[in-house]
Structure formats: structure tokens, C-alpha cells
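Example record for the data management plan.
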Amino acid sequence: MQPVNLEKSAKAVDEALATAAEHLDMLEYLHQTLNAGLAEQVKTEQARLKMEISQAADRAMRTTQKWRNMQLSKLSGLDVHFTSTHAELCKVKARMDVLDNAVQKAKNVQSVPLLKHYSDLDKILETLQAPIDKESFNMKCITMGCGMSVMFKSKWGNQSVDLFLKMDTGKPNSLSVVPPRLQQQSSELAQQPPGQAHGQSLASSYGHHSHGRAKSPLRSTNQRISPSRSPASRCRSPPPTRGSICYNSKASSQVDAIHDIIVEDFTETQNQHVSAGAPPTGPELAKDKRRSRRRGSSHLSEQTKNVAQKVVVTHVVNPTHFYVRYAAKKRESDILSKEINTFCTLDASCFSTADNVQNGSILLAKGKEGLWCRTSVLSVFQNGHDSSVESCPVDQLGHIRIFFIDYGYTKSLAIERDVSNTVSSVNNHLRKINPELVRFAPQAVRCSLKGLVPYDLSKGWSKQAQRAFCEVVGSAVVEMSSFGQDRDSLLVDLSKDPVGPSNDVPISIRDYLVFIEVARYYYPVKPSRRPLKYYSAVVPKINVEHNAVVTHVNSPDDFYIQLQSDNMESLLLKAKLQECYNDKNAEESLLLYCPVIGQACVARFDENMWHRAEVIGNPGYRKVDVFYIDLGFMTTVLVSDLRKIKDEFFSLPALAIQCCLSDVLPLAGETWSDACVKRFTSLTHGKLFTIGVTVKSSKKTPLPVKLLESSPTDSPTNIAEVLIQEQLVCSKTGFKTNMVSDDALWDSPLELNGLRPLELNADAVVEFQPRLNLPGSLKDAKVRVSHINSPSSFYVQFVNDDSQLKRLNELLKKECELAKLQDVVWTSNMFCAARVNQIWERGLICSDVSSDDIAEVMRCDHGNKVKLHVSNLQPLPASLEGSFALECSLTDIKPAGGQPTWTATACDFMHCNLSGASGLITIQELTDERPVAVTLMCTNKTGEFVNVSDYLAYEGLALRERKPVELSVPPEKPNETDAHSCDANIQAETPTQAAPPLPAYISKLHFPRPAPRTIRAVEKVQTDLYKTPELPQLGHNHMTISAVSEDGLIYARTDTAECHLENLKKKIHQRMKTLPNQKLYTWKTVKGCSVIGPDMLWYRGQLLEVLGGHVKVQYVDYGLVENIPVVHVYPRLLCEDIPQLCVACQLHATNPIGRIWHQDAIELLNEMLLDRRVDVNVLMLPTDPRQPLTVEIFLDGLSLSTILCHHKHALFDQTTPPAPPLPPVPILDIWDIDTEGLLGPREVMLGPFTKPDLPEVGEHLNVHVRHLQTPNKVFLFCEDMAHETVDGETLQECMTRINADVLSLLPLTSFPLGGPCLAEYSDGNYYRAKILEIISAEPVRILIQHMDFGSNDTVPSNLLRQMPAELLRFPLQALKVHVAGFKAPNIQTEGQVLPYCPEWSVKATQAMIHLLHGDIIAEFKYDDASTEPSVLLYNQEGQAVFLPLLASGLAQLD
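Corresponding structural encoding:
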């Protein structure tokens, strides 16, 4: 070989080796990766399978444990399976009863020989001597078992295990262990009776019609309840066994079939054995030939007599003839109905021309609901015959009368004649019945209410009785108590379940029919339960004063009071009673159908007033006598005005206390005269008294009390003394009418007693003075508080002026009633006569009359302000001008909390406790300024005088003012000029009459010297206005509206002023850290000022007007105008270098209707403009910057003037010249700005969510309901959804990881409809969501749907974040489905409906939510995967969850 070729070969080999080495490295890397991946796969799958295996095993164990507990609970009723032993017990007991009866008769004859002539002595002796045949009693029955056993089967497979558990009922077997005592009396078991094979063949012959599971309960029921037995025996059969858990349906069906055959044969054998008892041994037993035949069928009825059972009334003829069905057998009845309707679909059920219809035969006919039902033929009418026939060919049938044996009603059918095919007409109404279906016992049991007869025996049962029976029973499940049997009817009583634990007395249907007088008792029935009672009233203590209101008066020795305590329990009780019993939704559940004497209830007192009551009588005519326990009187009301009482209203005892007036007796012996009762009623009824208990008394006798009526001008009045003075009663102790007052013992709260000043020369005629007449002493003057604004502003009336005020009212009444209406222009500070509450008083106009003729008037003699129409105002003569009310202020205190104004709590406290109260005031200094500084003393509940200032400080509502230390300066002689001028002013304003000389015994008394009168100096102060505002430029400006005045001016701030406003607030807060000292100022020279606003912050203001104790102020930075007390305004400028920030604006060429802006127009402007940033087109600037601008305002491009004209609040002024043209907008320079890199990353648009895999058709899954949209549209969650993983991670783990670092997610900036996102929930975590709709733009509110739960929520944009794309790979964990089987009712009777789905009611939705709690089994029924899934939902008992909705009428079948 040549060297060149060798080199090439070597080079090729080297390259191949290098390539192979690379490939080997790559394969080694892949091998390691696969090994690591395999190990990870095995680890992950092992963990998952371990968890699933554990869950499946736990579920199987829980199911097995549940089956075990259910079967163990049934063992308590095992005695019902020993029917043969029960039968022998009945035979022995019957023989013992007969023998005991004969022994008793024999003893009576032995003691009284004459009785042998009246009794059959031979029969008695024959019965006593009759031998006992032991062979006639089957003693072997006690060696037999119950025939029940537990079956367990298991079948192991490669990948599965099938378990089978069943409680089987078979043939009774011998007991494995028999007690020695019974072994001697027992013999071998009886041979198996014939007929068992026949029963097996009969069951097997019917097996091809339906599966074994459906007929198993019916077959056992059929054999226990034979058609030949009485209704009593039918209703007391043991319930069928329902206790199997089966995972193999085929095996279950076979075992059920075997179970049915065994029970059937055993029951027939037992019946034959029982009926074949020994013949009677005496004439007493042989008297009734049917007794031995009926004993076998009724032996269970003796054991279950008086046992209540749940039934449903199916048909009512009258109260002694109706039919019921047992609620416990509803499942068996449903299965029977299904079997019947299945059979009717076969051709074998149709009649042919060869068939006949006979009387007494069993046929199938359509019932009320269109379903085929079993019927018994009562009469048959053949075509061409007038009377009924025994048998008729089908093709000649004309009329038939049938009885529905499973429902109890009768129906007549007329067969339509069809010439072509008569048999087909018959088949439309009637069908033949399968012989196997005839064996089932009738489901309807005939019953009769025991002991009831018609109310009118001559007329029989009325339609009203039938209607009342049906209304009270309805279609609900009721409780039936059986008392025996009368022929073919059970003697029963029906009762409805009570509502709530307090109403533990059930409603007896018999009692209800008797109560409404449609029936009578044949014999009386006593109630079995005692109703609940109220707590007795709490008796007040002796020698302790109480406030009480007299609620009802019968006589002075029989009246009722109600104590007035500080707590709110009685008021809350009354409010809750009205709220609860005026609720129309709860009215039906609280109706009281049959009240009994002594029962607690709630009765209607007035049209809509309810009070607690007790039934005390039954006068008839559907009325009852009740006693109102909180009011104390009796009355007769209709039963329809009674309601059941709830538990919560038993908590308070009775509030009405029966009392008698102490120390008085009737004048005419033992009876009170009518005049005395009327006078006592007029003095006491409905009035507040101070009462005191004089002596103790028992609970059954009235409580002796004293009644003392408080008076604002005099000492308390004793009612007993008044009656004695009027000679209507006499005294027990014989005291005189001028008895000593009880002021030392009885002090009414907040009233003055015993401390009034001496009234000298009371008989002297007092001249009328229309103005305030201050008393001679300014210390401890007796006053009455008439109106309270705050502790710094309240009004009082002097008691000495009461006669003057009364005379003034009389003069005003005469003056104003005779005066004619005058057209007066009312202005501020004008005196007037005002009609307040139909009484003429003096008033002072506070401000100009508004556009709707409403004036604000201050009541001069009381101090408060009212708003009146001008028709209630009259001019006041100048001679009557003045005021009897003095404005005062408490001294030595200041508001708590360091604030300059009084809190609402302090003002409300004074208003509640001192309004209308009497007290003593001491005027500290008499000045011309108002309010006057005073010290106010009032009495507390114990009668002690308390300083109101001290009490406010004690309650923490005020603080004591620290007084400065006074230096010791020699007293100066007061200026006589000032004193004279002061006295002259006072005398001119309130002239007084000279007092007469004091008597000698009074002149010796030492009166305290009054404090010297001084006049506080008034400080004169002057302030200027704040700087004028900076006006905006002509043209369009963005401005924020801050206020709208009553004259239509609009106040706005520019964007620059908004920035200055924030800085201004900070500066004011830094400067005003302490409150300036309060002084008396002359406000006439004050213009600019500082104001404390309602939010307790400082603002800059401008003083507009002084109104007594108030001033009208405008906030210069906002434009708002308010009336503020003087104490909240200080003559000081704040930040005077900053101009006022708001400007006034008026609309261009817009005039209000009637030239005055009406209140509704101002409200519309406030609603549209306040705190809103709008486009303002400034058309004209004023020469004075404080005057308003001429502007046009645009709201979203629409002119505000156009809006006002559209709402007919304003008109365009056509005479106004057009606005001058605006200067051209300057052209801005074109800037070449590079914006590249300034924009952030663009948000990625994500795709749709991944839908979960749908289950197969017919598959059953355990699900939970996560959200309910309507009762038939819900969102389901399957347990398998939580275990689905993506890259080895579940959705829950992924969301937990994302929520741990949620701040790293970007906020959502794009809001496309249907776009995915993450939304924050109320628990603070983020969940997957979808945008549905943008609700509002200001503020931004977005409607989203939580995709893994189904619920909707409205959230702001700041709670939304961009969703990572990896979350879209997880399927949704909420599957929206349609619940099949029911739909909304066609006619909606409920008042409240769902706003988004009006066909469903709120009540139905709430009921469905309650039914869907817990684990639910879903069966999927959809056919097309593209459509919305349709499911059937079942509860754990296997019943459809919507059945209660159908029973209550909230839904209907679909």
C-alpha cells in the first residue's frame, strides 16, 4: 500500500474513534438521565399509589363500619321477628283474662247470693272447671331463632377484590343453646309446612318481569300484610330489612330473591299455625266464633297499640272517614308504582274482546297524576242497561265506578263509544292487572278520628269540616296515634309536629276541629302535656322609690303598673316582638290553630302591635279570652290574632304588676262607685308616677302602693289624698285632708322638692311683663331647662315666670285667632307669632324665607329652632316682643379630649337627662353677652342635689378648668357709674315690681349675700379678608367642584389650587397646636376668621352674619356656608399670605325656573358635581376677583346647562349676548423625543383554561358542591381533580408556591373580557380567575369569576395580577353541570326571587344549599361531550336531593 493511502486510513480511523467517543459520552449521559428519571418516576408513582390505596382502604373501612353500626342499631327491635312466640303469648293472655273474669264473677256470687239469679252460673262454673290442654299451646316456639343471619363473601382477583355483606332473613332455625328450664317444656320443632315449594315456584315465575332488588321489599311487605287482614294488622307490621352493602349487583339480586322466598313461606306458615289454635274450652270463649280466627292477624296490633307512626293523608271524605299511607313504606310504594307502570307498557296489560269486567275485580286505572294505579271495581254498567250488572264484556262497557285501593278515593269513568274499536277506548282508561300485583296489600288505610261527631248531628258532617281537615293536614307528614279498631276503620288521632322547643304541645287535629266548632267530642279528652308558663312579675322592694306607669285600671284596689327601669330590656322586648310577628314570611309557621287554657302565646293588641299574652278562657265562636301579662288587662280576641311564642320571649318575667291603692277604702262598703273609678282612671291611666310599696303581700293578692305624681311647680301629689279631698274614698287611718306632705320621703327624679324660695304675698296681683324678669337673687333661682344645644349653650325658664308665660299664651291666642292673614315679607331678626303644634308662641325669624315659603324660627320662650311654613306666622305686636328663655353656659368646665368643641356624647347626655328637668341656677356674672355663665344644680334619683358640671366631669365628658392664682390686691370700690348704668340697663329690659316689707319672723332670718354683679369686658378686634383667589385663564380648564350654594353658585378649584390645598392643611396643622383663649369679641368688625369644622380640624373662613349665639361663616377654600356656634369661631387669620383657593362660578345664559334655584335643582347639582373633576370653559373674568366667573361646565362632553334645562330646572336666556371668542390656542413646538426603551414589557395574552376530563355516561362519583348558581345549576368538585399533577406538582402545591412569592407577579394592565388572571380573595390568597365585565370606571371595579370554585366577585384593579402561563396547564377544578330531574315551578308564589334568575325563588335556593351539604353522589347523563353536562344528584341514602323541594312546592318535576 502506498503511504498516502495509509495516512488516509489512519486519519479516517482516528476521526471515527473520536466520533465514537463522543457518541459513547452522549449515550452514557442519556443512560444516567434515564436511570435518574426512572428512579424519580418510581418514587413519584409509589407515593401516589400508596396514597390512593390508603384512601380506598379507608373508604371501604368507613363503609363497612357504617353498615355495622346500622345493623347493630336494628337489633333493639329484634322481638318483632318472633311472631310465633308473640302469638302464643296472646293465646295464653286471652285464656288468663277469661279465667280471671270468671273467678271475679264467682267471688261476687259467693259474697252476694242474690246475684246468681242475674248471672249464668252454669257457664261460670264450666269456665272455672275447664281443663288446660298443654298440647294446644306451642311451647316449641321458644326454641326457635329469629331466622336472621349475616352473610360475608369475598372474591379475590388479580387487580381487585369484591366484598359482599348482607343481613339475611331466612327460615327460623333452632337455637344453639336452650335454657335448661325451657328444655323440659319444649319438644321437637314442627315439620316444615306445605306450600313452601309453591311459594318458591311462584317467586321464580315472576322473576322474569323485574329484577329481584326492586321486588324484595314489596314481597316481604306483601306477605306480612295480607289483603284479608284488618287495617290494624296492616299498619303494625315490622318494617322490611334494609341493611345490605353490595359491590356486586348480580350477587345481591340473587340473594335478595332467596331472601324473599324464605320470608314469604315462613310468614304463611306462621299464619296457618296461629289460626289453627285449640278450640275454646268454655262458653265465654266460644261466644265469638271469629275471635280465634282474628287472633292470628291481630297479635302484633296488641303490642303496638298507641304507638305513634308517621303517615300522609291521601283522601278525606269527612273526619271519621279518611285514608292514610304510611310514610315508612314510601319506598315500597314507589317500587310498586314502578312495577305497575312498567307492566302497563306491555301488550299483556291490554284488554281484548274476549275479556269481561266483573264487580269486585282488581283493575288498573289512571290516577290523579296520570300514573296507573290499582283499583277495585265497585259497579259496572253495560250499554243499554239502566242498572249495574255483575259482569260485562269489554266491548259493551259503558260506565264503571272504581275505588283506588292505594289512595282511598272513588272515581267514575264513562267509556267513550268508538264504533271502529271499542276495546281501544277501554284500554285508554283501564288495563288488566298482573296476578302477582294483586297479592300486594292495599296501601291506603281507612281511618277515623276517635270520639268525634258532627257539630250538628241533624245535618251530619259539613263541607267546612272537610275543608278545615284538609287545610290543617295538607300534604305534610303527620303523626298518627292508634286507639283501636271499629269495623274496617282504625280509630286514630292525628297531630302535627310542634314548631320550636318552646311550643312542645303538638297540634291535635281532633282538638283543632272541636275548637273551630265543626266537630264535637263524644267524650272529653284531656291534654297530655302541660304548656310552658311565664315567669312571675318581679315585685319591687319595700320603702324604696320606683318610677312606674299605670297600664290598666279596674278600680283603686285593682290596677296594674309597669316599672320603668334604666335597662333597655323591656324596650328591646317590645321592638323584637313587633319585628318578629310583623314579618309576613314567618307568619305561616307561627300560626296557633288550637290554643288551650293556660297556654302562653303572642296576641295582637292593635292593628300592628303584638304583646305577650296567656289564654284564660274559651267562649267559643273561634274566639278566646287572653290576659296581656305586660299590660295587665283581659280581652277577647279571634284565634287568627294569636301566634306561637318563641323561646327568646320567655326570658323576661311578666312586666305588669297587680297593685292596690294603700290607706283608702270605698265609701259605699265593699264596692267602688263609678265616679270613683272614673276619676281614679283619669288621674292615673298611662301616667308616670313615683310609687312606694308600703307592706308585703302574697303573690295572689294585689300589692299595696302609694302613687305620687311629680309636678314641675309644686311638691308631688298623693293620688290617695286627692281622692279623699274629693270625697270619693275614705281613709283607713282617718287622716285629714290637710295632711303633712311626703316630700321628706318621696323625691321624684330630676325634680325639685322642698327647696323652692319662699313665695311672699302670693295673693297680690302681678302685672303682666312680656320680657324676662330676673329674680331678686341670682343665686339658687328655680328654673326649668327648656332646650339644650351643648353644655355651653342651653336655655332655661324661670319658674316665677310661669304665670306670665301662661298669660302670654292666652293673649297670643286671642290676638292671632282674630287676626286676618297678611302678606308679610319676612326677613331675618323679625319678631313674629308662630303656631307650633297648634299653639301660638313668640318667635324670631333666623334667616330669610326660602323659595318654598319655609322659614326657620327660634321659639323665643323656649330657645329651640323650628321650620314652619309662612302660613303659620303672624305679625307680633311690639308690646309683646321679648323672651322668657335665658341662654346659659356651664362654668368651670371645658370639653374633654383637648378639643375646643363639645362631643356629641356630652350633648346627647345632657339632652336625655336634663330636657324638661327642674333645677337651681346661680348666675356667676350678669353681662350683655349670651350665653350667661351659670352653675346648674339638679336632683338625682335619690333626691340629692348634684352639680351638673361636676357630674359631667365625673362621667368623663368634661374637664375642669384650671383657675389662675389670684394675687392679694386690695378690693377696689366699684365704679358707681358702671353700676348705675348696668342696673339701668337691667331695669329697662326686665322691670320688676317692688317687694312688700318682710314680716318680723322672716326679717330675723340670715340670707346669704348674693355675689356682686359685674360686667365682663368685651374685646374689640378687627380682621381683614383673605387674599383674593388667583383666577384661571380663559378657555377650557380642569377644575374640581367643592361646593354648590343655595343661590346656584358653583365653587371650584383649579389643579394648582388642589396642590396648594394639601400644603395649606399641613401648615395649619403645624401652627394650630393649642386652642386660643375664649373671650368675648365684638364680631361686627371681623371679616376673616378661623373655624373649627365638624371634623374637629381648623379651616379658614369668612364671617358673613351674626345670628345670636351663632355666626354664618363661609369656608374660603371650599365655598361651603354653615351656621356655627360662636365658641367654634376665632377672629384670627390663618396663613394670610396664601390667597383663598376656590373661585365662584355662574353658568352662562342659564336662568333658574322662577328666578330662584329650587332645592331639587341644588340637590341634582350636588349629586352630579361634588368632588368631581370636570371640564370648565371660562368665558368671562370679573373685574372683582371675588365675584363669580361666567363659565360653561361639561360633564363627559355634555353641557351642564343642557342637563338642567332637560330636567326643567332652568331655561336658556336668549337675551344674553354670546360669549366673546376665545384667543387661538398657541401652536406647540414639535419635539423629536425618542421613547424607545421607556415602555415596560408588554403583557402576554394568555389562552383559555384547560377543561377537566368528563366522566363516562352513567358513572357514579362522590362530589362536593363548590358553588350554587341556581337550584339546578351548580359547580361540582370531584376528589380525583385534586390529585391531577403536571410535572409532578398538583394545582394546590403550585398555587401555594406562587402565593408565597406573589409580590414578584406584575399587576394586571390589560383587561380583555374572558382573559385569565389571578385575583385576591378575602383570605389574602390569589386564585385563578377570568374577567367577565368591567362594572365601573370611577372607581375601577371589575367582575371576575373564580374558575376553580365557580363564584363571582367584584374587585378593584389593584387586586388583580398577571397569571403565570404554567397555571393554564392545570385543568379546572370546578365543573358546571345542570341538575336534571326538576325545574322551576310554572307559577311562582314566593315573594323574593333571584334577581339574575327570576324563575327561582330565594327560599328554594336556600333550601337547595342546605340539601347539598356533605358528600353527594353524581350520576352523569349527558350524551354529547360538547354540551353542558347533565347529572342526577343523590344523597348518601340513595335518594334524589331535590325531593324535598318537590314536596314543599318550591320546584316541579322536569
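Summary line stored alongside the record: The chain is about 25% helix and 25% strand.
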